[in-house]
Amino acid sequence: MVQLPAYARPRLALRLANSLDWVCMVLILGLAALLLPVTSAKAQSGSASFTIKESGRAYGTLQAAVNAIGDQRGTIEIAPGTYRECAVQTAGVVIYAAREAGTVTFDRTTCEGKAALVLRGLGAEIRGITFTNMNVRDGNGAGIRLEKGALNVAYSRFMNSQQGILTANDPNGRIYIMRSTFTGLGTCENSAGCAHSLYIGNYGELTVRDSRFERGRGGHYLKARAANVVIENNSFDDAQGSETNYMIDLPAGSRGSIAGNWFMQGRNKQNYSAFIALGAETVLHSSDGLSVRGNEARFVPGLQRSSVFLADWTGSSVALSGNTLARGLTDYERR
Predict the structure, then answer these.
(1) Is a pLDDT exceeding 60 seen at residue 327?
(2) Helix, strand, or coil here: 26?
(3) Which among 83, 51, 81, 85 is positioned nearest to 68, based on CA atoms?
(4) Secondary structure letter of residue 30 according to DSSP
(5) Average pLDDT in the 280-298 region?
(6) Chain-centre distance for alpha carbon 197
(7) CA separation for the pair 67, 153 (Å, rounded)
(8) Residue 36 burial (10 A CB sphere; 0-12, 13-18, 19+)
(9) Which residues contact 6 (CB under 8 A, 6 or more apart)?
(10) Which residue has the higher pLDDT, 242 or 18?
C-alpha cells in the first residue's frame, strides 16, 4: 500500500471497500469475464514465476502466461522478483497481480518499443506492481501502454521512466486508477513531443483517486482528453520537480469532478502559469458543470510567485468552491 506523508495525505481519502466506482469497474470486468471461459491451456516448462490462478499452471515467462489465457479470462499471479521482460495482450481479460504487493518490479524492458505491458484486449487489471526505467527511442517509454479496452490499476508504482501510463483513444472505454504512485516521470526532450506522468487519450471516463504524483521530470503530471473525469483525493507534489508544466491538463475539455486534492508547485518549472488547465488544445467535450471543489494549493515554502489555480480556455460554466489557495494564486482566469 502506498503511504503518503501526513502533510500531503489527501483529506477526503476513501477506503477501497467504500469506493462505489471501484466496485463498478470490477463489475464491468466481471460481467465481461462471464462471457469468456476460464483458460485450460497446458503448462510450459520453466520456473513458476507466473502462475494462472484459475488453473494453477505455471509459466516461465509473462508472455507465455498471457498467451495461455488468450481470448479467455485469467489472473496471472507473479512471484516476488525483478523482471527484465514484457508482454503484449491482444485479447481477453487479464489480471496481472503481484503475489505480494510491492514485491514485483518490471525493469528496463519494453515490448514493441512501447511499454512493459502493451494492452489491447477486452480489459486488464494491474495490482501491486512496480514499473521502472522504461525508456524508448521516441521518448514514450511507459510502464503501461493501453491501446484498447478497460483498465484498472491499484497499489502500483511507476518510477523513473519517460511516462507512467500512456493510452490511445477509446471513447467507450473506462480507466480507474487508485492508490498508486507516479514519480520521476515525464520529459520534453524528444522529437515526439512531451511525455507525462499519466497521459490519457480520448477515453470515455477516467477516475484517479488516492494516488500520489511527485518529482516530475517534464511535461504535465496528469494529462487527459477523457470526456468525463473524477480526480479526487490525490497529492501533486512538485517540490522536487524539474522543468514541469501543469499539475492537471484537460486539453480537450472534460466534465466531472476535481476535488479534495493537494497541490504544491515547485521552483523549477517550464510553465508555472497555472496549476490546472482546461481546454488549452482542440476542444472535444463540453466542460459545463465541471466541479472543482475542496482542493488545497500552495507554493513550495519560501517561494513567492503569481499563478492561476484554474486557467480556462473554454469559457464553460465551471463550479469552483471551497478551495484553499496560497497567497499569489488567483482562483480562476478565462484565457
Answers:
(1) yes
(2) helix
(3) 51
(4) H
(5) 98
(6) 8
(7) 21
(8) middle
(9) none
(10) 242
